[in-house]
Design goal:
This protein is of the alpha+beta class. The chain has 16 helices and five strands. Strand 4 and strand 5 form a beta hairpin.
Length: 391
């Protein structure tokens, strides 16, 4: 008995509000809480995504790269296939701001070339007396813009009678930097169009498997297992090699894009199937069926929007694999070819190890490939975390 009294006396006192209970009173909700409660799913995703700093910076980097898709002609100082016969395998021209202690602004030194008869190659060295200021917001060689419109405006141009090879030139004297800018248009859109095809097939096929189940689900699962068991790169190579070489470059581009999209849908289809297997048993889905809604409407109007955010995050993580696939095929000369320019086509110039050791700037197109793939991975991680309701 004594122990029980001692234990009770040592226990902390509990505060009880002496005011009578008012059943009509409500908890005070702050404006911030009310704004959160009334926000849509996309708004909540955006607020969570903004807290993911690497994903935000990755989004900025991707936005800058994707500016080259509509504005490649304005961003590049030369056309991608323009040849400079006097500057074959020219090294990069470094940017400078000061000349002999005097501020000049962004400029490059002119280059002088000589023929090395011992090595049988052309050698370049900068001419420190030839200062070539870079012109900004200028007019240069005309080009055909969208819908056949002719223009000549560029973001920056070389000096009159000068050159500006920021990343050097290749074996035909074509500017590598201009090729990278134009190549972004092809390499980046391949991933977007391919993912669009993959998402369409994944939603249709995976939705049918998850909603109907039974024989349909078993058949789809067997097809997915067969496709996933095949080695990916050899399958890409075989299908790409089957494209006729006589096709127009645009048809080759569309063919490569369709191939990448057709072979990437199994992963998205499985994600859609697993979600639909759970959501089809929800009350709102059953209510739609009892009201006479068709399966296509139940899937497209009621079930798929419930996890569309997860599909978008998964699709953003699939784009890098398609960019790498196109780059690998073009590098192996089984994808796109000149006059179409992509990052893989540019890397095709660097297949020989001897050329790489002598002209290392030909490997420059691998830098945007690495940057874009990493940016998409960080961006996809941010989207996935923002779409996760448990985070």
């Amino acid at each position: 008995m004594t122990d029980q009294r001692e234990t009770t006396s040592l226990a902390p006192d509990h505060y009880v509000n002496p005011d009578p209970f008012d059943p009509t009173s409500r908890e005070v909700i702050t404006p911030e809480q009310e704004r959160f409660f009334q926000a849509s799913q996309m708004q909540i995703m955006w607020w969570k995504f903004r807290r993911h700093k690497p994903a935000m910076w990755a989004g900025v980097i991707l936005f800058i790269f994707y500016l080259a898709v509509p504005f490649a002609e304005q961003m590049a100082p030369y056309s991608p296939n323009q040849r400079h016969s006097e500057h074959i395998y020219a090294p990069p021209q470094g940017l400078h701001l000061f000349h002999e202690g005097r501020f000049v602004g962004p400029f490059v030194y002119g280059m002088e070339s000589t023929i090395n008869l011992d090595l049988m190659q052309r050698e370049f060295k900068p001419n420190l007396n030839d200062v070539q200021p870079i012109r900004f917001f200028c007019f240069s060689d005309p080009y055909d813009y969208w819908m056949g419109f002719e223009a000549s405006f560029r973001l920056f141009c070389p000096a009159e009678g000068g050159t500006v090879f920021l990343l050097g030139t290749d074996r035909l004297g074509r500017d590598v930097f201009s090729g990278i800018v134009y190549g972004a248009r092809i390499s980046l859109t391949v991933g977007l169009i391919g993912v669009a095809i993959s998402m369409l097939l994944g939603i249709i096929i995976g939705g049918a498997a998850g909603y109907f189940g039974g024989i349909v689900d078993s058949f789809v699962q067997r097809v997915i297992e067969i496709l996933r068991s095949l080695p990916e790169l050899p399958l890409w190579m075989a299908l790409s090699a089957a494209l006729p070489v006589t096709w127009n470059p645009i048809l080759i581009y569309l063919g490569i894009t369709v191939i990448l999209g057709l072979l990437d849908w199994p992963g998205l289809a499985r994600a859609v199937r697993s979600k639909l297997l759970a959501l089809r048993e929800e009350e709102y889905a059953r209510a739609a069926v009892l009201m006479g809604a068709k399966p296509t409407r139940v899937i497209g109007r009621h079930l798929v929007p419930g996890f569309m955010s997860h599909l978008i995050a998964s699709a953003s993580l699939s784009i890098p694999s398609m960019i790498l696939g196109e780059t690998a095929l073009s590098f192996l000369d089984l994808g796109l070819r000149r006059p179409v320019v992509s990052w893989g086509v540019l890397l095709n110039e660097a297949q020989n190890i001897t050329i790489i050791t002598v002209y290392p700037w030909l490997m420059a197109p691998v830098i945007p490939v690495i940057v874009v793939v990493l940016a998409f991975n960080f961006f996809g991680d941010g989207l996935r975390d923002a779409a996760d309701p448990y985070k």
